[in-house]
Prior knowledge:
- By secondary structure, this protein is mainly α.
- The chain folds into three domains: 7-83, Winged helix-like DNA-binding domain superfamily/Winged helix DNA-binding domain (Arc Repressor Mutant, subunit A, Orthogonal Bundle); 97-178, Arc Repressor Mutant, subunit A (Orthogonal Bundle), CATH 1.10.10; 187-216.
- It is built from seven helices and five strands, in the order H-E-H-H-E-E-H-H-H-E-E-H.
- It has helices at 7-22, 31-38, 52-64, 97-109, 114-120, 130-141, 188-215; strands at residues 29-30, 68-71, 80-83, 149-151, 163-165.
- The strands form two sheets. A three-stranded antiparallel beta sheet has the order 1-3-2. Strands 4-5 form a two-stranded antiparallel ribbon.
- A hairpin with an 8-residue loop joins strand 2 (68-71) and strand 3.
- Helix 1 (7-22) crosses helix 2 (31-38) and helix 5 (114-120) packs across helix 6 (130-141).
- The longest helix has 28 residues, at 188-215.
- The relative contact order is 0.11.
Amino acid sequence: MDMDLSLLQTRVIACLIEKEVTTPDQYPLTLNSLTTACNQKSNREPVMSLSDTDVQDVIDELNKKHMIRQEGSFGSRVPKFKHRFCNTEFSELKLSAQELAIICTLFLRGPQTPGELRSRTNRLCSFSDVHETEATLQKMSEREEFPLVVRMPREPGKRESRYAHLFSGEVEAADPSEYSPPAVRASASNDAIAALEHRVSELEKIIADLQEKLGE
């Protein structure tokens, strides 16, 4: 799968994906709404200042790639746009809600750590913890037909490596030998059981001490 998307193309696609999930009653988007979404100051990096003409040019480019569809409701002269990027009959790419949220967020904000992705995708999907985010990223990077993301070399002074999407060409990958699979964390139920057992043991000891004192 060769998409080779530009920065502006990924911004337009991601805005359509984001609004489809977060404001479904306003989706598909008009040109004006899409431009506003592209220029949004929150959850965007870099922040852009695109005109309607700029966005229309990107729409035309994506239309040639069959990644955008124009729709118009009956009696309305204002065209609206929706993506064909994935999970449609027009696309080979099928993504889970978590995978789609990660790609969308990487399109909107560039390379990010698993921790950043977990917190920044919370409007689009849910991850139980950062370990689940890491596991999803690992799965996405190991897809045989088309890896979706890559783990980048860790920056000096940083504890976590960032991940980048692979829809805009190659990205320098980290040395695989540096990767440690996400640690399997004890489940909350096991932790709770252990805590209760410890508490019961303490209470039994207190009762034994009281019985001994009363016997004296």
